[in-house]
Amino acid sequence: MATIYRKTAKGHSEIETRSHRLPPRLRSALILVDGRRSDDDLRKLIPQQADESLQLLGEQGFIEIIGITQAAPAAVRAPLPAAAPAAPVSRPQALEQPSMPPRDFAQTRAQAVRLFTDMVGPMAEALALKMEKARSPDELRPLVQTAQRIIGNTRGGQAASDYGTRFLM
Fold first, then answer.
1. Contact indicator for 29, 42 with CB cutoff of 8 Å
2. Which residues contact 154 (CB under 8 A, 6 or more apart)?
3. Where do runs of H (alpha helix) occur along 39-136?
4. 87 or 2: which carries more pLDDT confidence?
5. Residue 63 forms beta bridges with which residues?
6. Exposure string (b/e) for 68-104, b if CB count within 10 Å is 16 or more?
7. Mean pLDDT of the chain
8. Which of 117, 126, 147 lies closest to 161, judged by CA?
9. Rounded to an integer, what distance in angstroms lies between the CA atom of residue 97 and that of residue 59?
């Protein structure tokens, strides 16, 4: 049996504002929780004390269980639908507009960080933290370019190109 977790509103708030000042180990684990990965998948990505980290995040209300599935072999396992709607394709065009509403920028930034950490794993933490601190599309752009280069090195040119197409302004 595999458990699927997603971030709660408190978890999303912590990612955006750091208002609860989670220790780095828990913050890294929280960033990886996406509503699609099972606890088995998360254990592979969380370098230290994965079970304890997930338990603490759950007890403190940062994540919640959204499903328990029967584990299938990795080659047969079908992706679960996302807990939240997928990012609209039009999101990158919204970044090109000179006066983007703050909420749209915050959502786009969060999606860029989430996808980057999904693709690179815990090694993405340092750059992901810088991306989360970006206050405007102009501050985020060079960070997304760096993320794109890292994705190219770890996942290949096509993955890097797809990421850049989606988030480069």
1. yes
2. 119, 120, 123
3. 39-45, 50-59, 91-96, 102-120, 125-133
4. 2
5. 7
6. eeeeeeeeeeeeeeebeeebeeeebebbeeeebeeee
7. 78
8. 147
9. 41
Question: What whole-number distance in Å separates Cα of residue 94 and Cα of residue 100?
Answer: 7
Place of tokens 């970044």: 95
Q: How far apart are CA 43 and CA 15, in angstroms?
A: 20
Q: How crowded is residue 6: how many other Cβ atoms within 10 Å of its Cβ? A: 19
* Single pTM value for the model: 0.45
DSSP H/E element including 64: strand 63-69
pLDDT, tens only, 5-47: 888 999 888 888 988 899 988 988 998 998 888 888 888 888 8
Identify the residue whose tokens are 């080659």.
Answer: 75
Q: Which amino acid makes up residue 11?
A: G
